[in-house]
Amino acid sequence: MVNWLILSSLFGVLRSIPTASAHYRFATLIAPNVTTKNAVRQPVSWNPMVDLASNNMRCNINAGVAKEVVELQAGTDLAFGLDNSIFHPGPGALYLGKVPESESAATWDGSGQNWFKIKNWGGYPSNWNWVFPDILNVWQVNGTIPLAVPSGEYLLRMEHIALNQGIGQKETQYYVSCAQVRIVGGGNGTPAPLVTIPGHFQPNDPGLQIDVFHPVLGTVYRVRFMVGCLALLGSLKTFRRSQGQMSGRDS
Ligand SMILES: *[C@@H]1O[C@H](CO)[C@@H](O)[C@H](O)[C@H]1NC(C)=O
Ligand SMILES: *[C@@H]1O[C@H](CO)[C@@H](O)[C@H](O)[C@H]1NC(C)=O
Ligand SMILES: [Cu+2]
Question: Are 40 and 25 a contacting pair, CB within 8 Å?
Fold first, then answer.
């Protein structure tokens, strides 16, 4: 016999878990030669950020800079490991922020128009909801340092945008971490466009208004947060600039 009271209160508990406790953090940098938490500015909590205008959008609310700077060969594959699966639907992106001359990856706060996008995880509407390949329900997100990126120190920033709380900018959740890296063997590319964070997209951007649980098949959403895609000169394929598409997979 199903007791509806128990069932509904259990359902209530299950529903409340995601907002009450363990969300997910990008906690570990996984590089070919090293897997470490010590190069990641660890977010102090699992809670999402909701204020798109906050400087915390750069590298989350953390306890300070990280202890290590990890050396990465340009062209290398890397990943961020999570401490929980990404259980909310929404797009994601990987950025590099060039550390200014006067600073190091272990000191820079991420201010200035120094950020460019090197990977995007988009989505598309299916019959029942939006699908976000390679980013929903994973414990690890993978990327590559483009060969054309100039050598030097950078913050490597992962961002996941959870759209499950319904349509509307106030409900959107942001999950962000920065790893401190030094890229060696880099190329002569000119990363563009460069963006500031915050400022890389706006709360009323159409891409943030998507109802992920009520897809409109065939709809193509233009999203301004694709600003910051990488368009490096040189060997790299050119990523879509300024106005990316939410439908279909970018990489
Ligand atoms: C990683 O290790 C390989 C093999 O030992 C080496 O060739 C490469 O230079 C290392 N990469 C970095 C960035 O240290
Ligand atoms: C990330 O890379 C690892 C190692 O190659 C692979 O096992 C995993 O499936 C990849 N994850 C995704 C989401 O593509
Ligand atoms: Cu949640």
Answer: no
CA 140 – ligand 2 centroid, Å: 7
Contact at 8 Å (CB) between 127 and 249? no
3-state secondary structure of 20: helix
Fold type of domain 24-245: Coagulation Factor XIII; Chain A, domain 1 (2.70.50)
CA 84 from chain center: how many Å? 15
Position 220 scores a pLDDT of: 52
pLDDT single digits (tens) 67-104: 999 999 999 999 999 999 999 999 999 999 999 999 99
Q: Is 77 touching ligand 2 by the criterion CB < 6 Å? A: no
Is the CB of 103 within 6 Å of ligand 2? no
pTM check: above 0.85: no
Q: And the tokens for 164?
A: 């499950």
For the Cβ of 71 lying below 6 angstroms from any atom of ligand 1, the answer is: yes
**Which atom of ligand 2 lies nearest, measured to the CA of 135?**
13
- CA dist list (Å): 70 to 108, 115, 185, 221: 15, 19, 14, 37
CA 28 to the chain's CA centroid: 14
Q: What is the pLDDT of residues 151-186, one digit of tens each?
A: 999 999 999 999 998 666 668 999 999 999 999 999
- The DSSP bridge partners found for residue 173 are 162
Ligand 2 within 6 A of 59 CB?
no
Ligand 1 centroid–CA 50 distance in Å is: 39
Would you give the DSSP letter of residue 227?
Answer: T
Q: Give the β-pairing of 70-73 and 173-184.
A: parallel
